[in-house]
């Protein structure tokens, strides 16, 4: 393991390691929401004399930066978009990450663990979906359960990890997450640990921000992609962007589609994703933008594979997937020692008329205005609409008394409408001669959620092998609604005590009100409804960064977060305490860019405690679970020792357990929450043959290891550790006379899980009698073009 930590790194990076950058210690320019700026790899330490001379000039440089024409920020930000495909540092820490700080800082300048997976990494690693991308980050696991897309990070999962889109929080992650394609994405940002300061309620384990591709200023560029896999899936995409003939008007649009066939019988997911944006600079100091987005998702889904007694499966019992003993949460029969039956590895126990459909539409617009050389005002209004429909058999529980699989249906529909505004004011100044940047932000949103759901739950039994799947049956519905009105004031500040030492802190005051209704099939309000509850959480963080040596930065922080104690706005009943959880975190770490920008590593250690916790149980119920405590360390590194070689990898070690989780008849204190592994490792390497006598070829391999996880709070069934490995090859075809307009063609060959490992990927605590299996070996071929 020690050799792995030394030799591998987290994210591959391209040939742009030598591009020009600005020193990380250089005086700051005005923050901008028009992302990424690049920063220079640290230079050799100067002598005392040259340092003094440099410092004597620094004031003049800083003053020049502060008195530059307002157009500097706008123009530089716009043009920086084109650099996203070629990150300048191994861990992609050269980009401004607005989801991690409104101060316009790069990950190396933020006193927190921040990761960025850029478009080039997404392309090279073959991250076709958002789930694929998330799994490559340090210490993150994911499960694409049909009812929701769930993530775990730093010992917390589901609604305790916020998912935002272009920095906007849509609501509870378990309701709003969608496993869409990645073609339309510019990058994915990860902010680890409690982070309500940035993304509001729910960010206890951290936040994941998906950023769509945006316009750049410059010549128009186009890209296209098409790919196939051995399951019969097909993916394609086309995008275009650049400057138009109208001065100051830039555009970007992308459209992608996919039909992804699953390895489970009769499963697929169809995706259509359109995104577009216009940027218009009316003056050098004033820019407006408008953006629109649409997603259409339609799937036939797999809800899980039942755990069965080893005694029943006999010679068909598998090893290496699960272990332990089980008493069915659904029918109460004792299964004894359990396994996954090899005859059920591709069986779909869902009904024939199952479906999951989601339609989403976005509209965003706003402006960025450099009021003075030191003051910038930004504002964005947005409207988000979603319609979601789940119509499935969701329970598949083996019954030891009948040796059949008990099934039960579930239906729910969402109508969601979200309107809001984010406005912030950035002020650069000097405080007692020290550089200071203050951002004051105001956020408002109004969320309407209606949720017609099942009032009856048709049930039946089928055989484990070759089940007669049947149809959903009769459906009657009842209705729930939730409305949230939220307002937040954020203050975030960085004070540079010296050029190498900065204090960074923030505070968020976020009063909000929840109004709920719930009616039965006859439209009569249920007991305790309607009701209203109001909350006034205050969260924040305080920390420092210290660049002790050029490129070597130490940091520490204290951060807090809060969220609804039930996690879901529809699971908390009026008879339960209407309170918020509280979470606090201590974190310290090191970030180091070295070898003239050819290598980079980060290390973090953290201690998180979340109080007033509810835990998911079978049958859409919750238990009061006291506290969750999580400690851990994370390490990530990447290097390019010679131009032909890339090395990358990361490792996370977690110790997460419940505290004060006592109930009538027992206690789960000391147990680990579901889906939380103690160890997660990603690593890989590639070699590029620059002069093979044909076309440039790159060969690579990546490995992922996930440790043991438990399927329920009781910790009686273990989803065993697994390791998967992928291999890939790129062939780059240069511009030719046959296709003179195509400047860059890449043909990709990929084998996923080439050892054909059988493993448990995830468990839904609401359905603890079944687990979701991981995909077996598959093959892919694809081609991408730029012109």
UniProtKB/TrEMBL annotation:
- In which organism is this protein found? Bradyrhizobium diversitatis
Q: What is the lineage of its organism?
A: Bacteria, Pseudomonadati, Pseudomonadota, Alphaproteobacteria, Hyphomicrobiales
Please state the protein's primary subcellular location: membrane
Give positions of region: Disordered.
16-95
Write out the annotated subcellular location: Cell outer membrane
Q: For the TonB-dependent receptor-like beta-barrel domain, which residue ranges apply? A: 328-753
Alphabetized PANTHER family for the sequence: FERRICHROME IRON RECEPTOR-RELATED, FERRICHROME OUTER MEMBRANE TRANSPORTER_PHAGE RECEPTOR
InterPro entries linked to this entry: Beta-barrel_TonB, Beta-barrel_TonB_sf, Plug_dom, Plug_dom_sf, TonB-dep_rcpt-like, TonB_rcpt_CS
Q: Which domain of life is it from?
A: Bacteria
Instruction: Spell out the family assignment given in the record's similarity comment.
Output: Belongs to the TonB-dependent receptor family.
Q: List the keywords (alphabetical).
A: Cell outer membrane, Ion transport, Iron, Iron transport, Membrane, Receptor, Signal, TonB box, Transmembrane, Transmembrane beta strand, Transport
Can you name this protein?
A: TonB-dependent receptor
- The record places domain TonB-dependent receptor plug at 107-207
Query: How is the protein disposed in the membrane?
Result: Multi-pass membrane protein
- One Pfam family of this protein, by short name? Plug
Does this entry carry the keyword RNA-binding? no
List the PROSITE patterns hit by this protein, alphabetically.
TONB_DEPENDENT_REC_2 (PS01156), TONB_DEPENDENT_REC_3 (PS52016)
According to the UniProt entry, the coiled-coil residues are none
Motif, TonB C-terminal box: chain positions: 770-787
Q: Where is the composition biased (Polar residues)?
A: 44-95
């Amino acid at each position: 393991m020690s050799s792995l930590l030394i030799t591998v790194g987290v994210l591959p990076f391209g040939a742009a390691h030598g591009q020009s950058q600005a020193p990380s210690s250089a005086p700051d320019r005005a923050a901008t929401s028009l992302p990424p700026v690049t920063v220079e790899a640290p230079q050799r330490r100067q002598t005392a004399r040259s340092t003094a001379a440099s410092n004597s000039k620094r004031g003049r440089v800083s003053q020049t930066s502060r008195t530059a024409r307002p157009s500097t920020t706008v123009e530089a930000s716009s043009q920086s978009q084109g650099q996203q495909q070629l990150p300048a540092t191994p861990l992609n820490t050269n980009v401004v990450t607005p989801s991690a700080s409104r101060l316009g800082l790069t990950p190396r300048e933020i006193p927190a663990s921040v990761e960025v997976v850029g478009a080039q990494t997404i392309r090279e690693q073959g991250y076709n979906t958002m789930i694929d991308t998330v799994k490559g980050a340090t210490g993150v696991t994911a499960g694409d359960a049909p009812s929701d897309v769930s993530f775990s990070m730093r010992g917390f999962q589901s609604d305790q990890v916020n998912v935002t889109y272009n920095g906007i929080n849509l609501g509870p992650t378990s309701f709003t997450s969608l496993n869409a394609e990645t073609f339309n994405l510019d990058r994915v940002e990860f902010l680890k640990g409690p982070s309500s300061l940035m993304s509001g309620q729910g960010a206890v384990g951290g936040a994941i921000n998906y950023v769509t591709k945006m316009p750049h200023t410059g010549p128009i560029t186009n890209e296209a992609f098409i790919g196939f896999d051995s399951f019969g899936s097909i993916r394609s995409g086309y995008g275009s962007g650049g400057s138009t003939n109208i001065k100051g008007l830039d555009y970007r649009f992308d459209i992608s589609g996919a039909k992804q066939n699953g390895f489970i019988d009769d499963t697929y997911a169809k995706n259509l994703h359109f995104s577009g944006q216009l940027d218009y600079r009316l003056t050098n100091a004033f820019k407006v933008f408008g953006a629109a987005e649409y997603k259409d998702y339609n799937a036939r889904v797999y809800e899980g594979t039942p755990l069965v007694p080893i005694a029943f499966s006999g010679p068909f019992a598998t090893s290496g997937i699960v272990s332990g003993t089980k008493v069915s949460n659904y029918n109460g029969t004792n299964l004894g020692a359990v396994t996954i039956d090899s005859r059920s590895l591709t069986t779909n126990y869902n009904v024939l008329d199952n479906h999951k459909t989601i339609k989403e539409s976005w509209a965003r617009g706003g402006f960025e205005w450099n009021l003075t050389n030191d003051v910038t005002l930004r504002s964005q209004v947005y409207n988000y609409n979603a319609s979601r429909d789940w119509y499935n058999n969701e329970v598949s529980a083996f019954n030891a008394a009948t040796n059949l699989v008990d099934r039960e249906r579930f239906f729910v529909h969402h109508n969601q409408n979200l309107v809001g505004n984010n406005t912030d004011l950035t002020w650069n100044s000097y405080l007692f001669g020290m550089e200071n940047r203050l951002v004051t932000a105001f956020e408002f949103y109004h969320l309407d959620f209606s949720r017609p759901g099942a009032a009856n739950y048709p049930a039946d039994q089928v055989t484990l092998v070759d089940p007669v799947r049947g149809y959903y049956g009769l459906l009657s519905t009842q209705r729930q609604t939730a409305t949230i009105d939220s307002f937040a004031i954020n203050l975030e500040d960085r004070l540079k005590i010296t050029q190498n030492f900065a204090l960074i802190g923030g505070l968020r005051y976020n009063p909000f009100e929840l109004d709920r209704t719930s009616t039965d099939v006859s439209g009569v309000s249920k007991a305790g409804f309607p009701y209203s509850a109001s909350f006034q959480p205050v969260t924040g963080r305080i920390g420092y960064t210290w660049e002790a040596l050029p490129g070597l930065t130490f940091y520490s922080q204290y951060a807090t977060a809060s969220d609804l104690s039930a996690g879901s706005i529809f699971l908390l009943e009026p008879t339960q305490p209407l309170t918020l959880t509280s979470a606090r975190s201590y974190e310290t770490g090191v970030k180091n860019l070295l070898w003239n920008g050819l290598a980079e590593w980060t290390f973090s250690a953290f201690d998180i405690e979340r109080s007033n916790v509810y835990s998911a149980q079978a049958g859409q119920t919750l238990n009061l679970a006291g506290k969750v405590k999580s400690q851990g360390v994370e390490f990530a590194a990447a290097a390019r020792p010679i131009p032909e070689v890339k090395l990358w990898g990361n490792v996370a070690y977690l110790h997460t357990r419940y505290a004060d989780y006592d109930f009538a008849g027992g206690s789960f204190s000391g147990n680990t929450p579901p889906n939380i592994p103690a160890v997660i490792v990603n690593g890989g390497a590639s070699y590029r043959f620059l002069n093979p006598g044909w076309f440039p070829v790159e060969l690579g391999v990546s490995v992922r290891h996930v440790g043991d996880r438990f399927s329920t709070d009781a910790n009686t069934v273990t989803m065993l550790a697994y390791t998967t490995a992928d291999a890939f090859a790129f062939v780059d075809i240069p511009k030719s006379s046959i296709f003179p307009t195509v400047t860059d063609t890449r043909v990709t060959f990929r084998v996923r899980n080439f050892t054909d490992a059988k493993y448990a990927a995830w468990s839904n605590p609401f359905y603890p009698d079944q687990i979701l299996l991981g995909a077996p070996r598959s093959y892919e071929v694809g081609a991408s073009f730029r012109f």
